[in-house]
Design brief:
Blueprint: E1 3-5, E2 9-10, H1 12-25, E3 36-43, E4 48-54, E5 77-82, E6 90-97, E7 102-109, H2 110-113, E8 115-119
Amino acid sequence: MRGSTMTNWMGKAATSAVIAAFAAVLPAGSVLAEDLEFLIINDSDADIVEFQVSDPESNVWNSNLIPEGYVLPSGNEIVVIVADGRDICEYDLRAVWDDGGEYVEYDANLCDLGEYTFVDP
């Protein structure tokens, strides 16, 4: 089982490609004031293949924030934008690794964190 620390996610060369991919799925007009931007860091030994957030009041995970065809390699970081237009800070977080491992944290305050680090247990 993997865990997390409150810190960042994806390599410098890969970061630019993934940020461009994230920008492609954001609505025109860039980041709104209500959208959350934070850094995810993968300090675990495996690649993260899925990263999702969800409103704590919902029983459903939102879409994978890692674009299809990409992973967040071990030892890398990336900027993530939650572009849902909501003015909430608390979200449930879910990460899935390429080895089948999964980590879930409930009610993480993304406004206060600024970054989030996934680590091995």
